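@channel sequence for tomorrow's demo:
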Amino acid sequence: MRQLSEHVALAAHQAQLYGALQRAYDDLRQSQQAMMQQERLRALGEMASGIAHDINNALSPVSLYTQSLLEVDRTAIEDVAETVARMREFYRPREAELVLSRVECNRLIDQVVNLTRARWSDQAQQRGVFIQLKTEIAENLPDIMGSEVEIRDALTNLIFNAVDAMPEGGTLTLRTRLVSSGGDITRQVQVEVADTGIGMDEETRRRCLEPFYTTKGERGTGLGLAMVYGMVQRHSAELEIESAVRRGTLVRLIFAVADPIVPAASARPRPQQLLSRLRILLVDDDPMLTKSLRDILEQDGHVVTVADGGQNGIDTFTAALSHGPTFSLVITDLGMPYVDGRRVAAAIKAVSPRTPVILLTGWGQRLVAENDIPAHVDRVLSKPPRLTEVRATLADLAPVGETSAAGLDSARHRA
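structure tokens (generated this afternoon):
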């Protein structure tokens, strides 16, 4: 009887052990399934993140060019509206309501080159004609006082006239210079548009400023140069024309230099006011992204050097430190093979701690949201980038007073 009781107790104990083991096994299986589900979700999340990153990279060039095109279209539309409003004002003196502001002629030249590119490049090539554009830009050119829209419209008319004067092709030259006289008492900014076209005889040159006088037949309105002269009159500026038959034409606009800005002693100048041309190192392994961003930044007047990949970026930056000119700031991608953006930022800060580093990445929003900004990075921008954010960041991070005049010739000759 006692043995039976012992057997029953043993069986009961074994049953308890079996039940406990079964529950442990069920718990283990559920935990394993949960872990597998979490692993699947983690893998799915990483895959989605990677896909989003690739999509952001692919969208970046399209987004940049679209934003730039919208800006150009808006500028062109505003200029047309201003032109229509001024058609009656050829010889009218400058009116009191004409608002004058500081105008940077070199930046205006950049804008006009891009606004008229379709005329002197694309349309000409469609006709089998090649027009070479040359820019000879004076460094550190002081501002003038004027209406930016009116001056840009005048330069556009002069370029169109120059293109029309070269039906077989030729060279279009845009030039700025600073001229001083009287022991630097009088300083003037000269802006020239020159062509190697058919030129004008003396009678045509003498009458070319008259409204509705044209040598283009039905294609011409005779208003282009007259509107240019009206702008000159309203700006109390000067206009000179040099031309000879079959030797081309040069039109020179001459403006007085604006008075220098004297900042208040207690006010620190804003970086946006002092920001001019920066030397920017762009590090990325995506050629479409680097081309589009470089095009936009160069349109803004900056000098951009592209480095394909992280190690190339580090080498380019250190070489500039040794031989100059140095870079104002660096824009780098995050995800690059072998040497990523984190290592680029660390390497740059190691040799030049004050150089700003901007991280431009498809994971930008995630890094900011998770407060996971890599060390040695001053600012994170997301792909596709917004031009307003890019420009604001450059203005915010650029060294105060940075103009980076050195090396501008390389950017100027790109046209």
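heads up for whoever presents: Confidence is low (pLDDT under 50) at residues 85-96, 264-274, 403-415.
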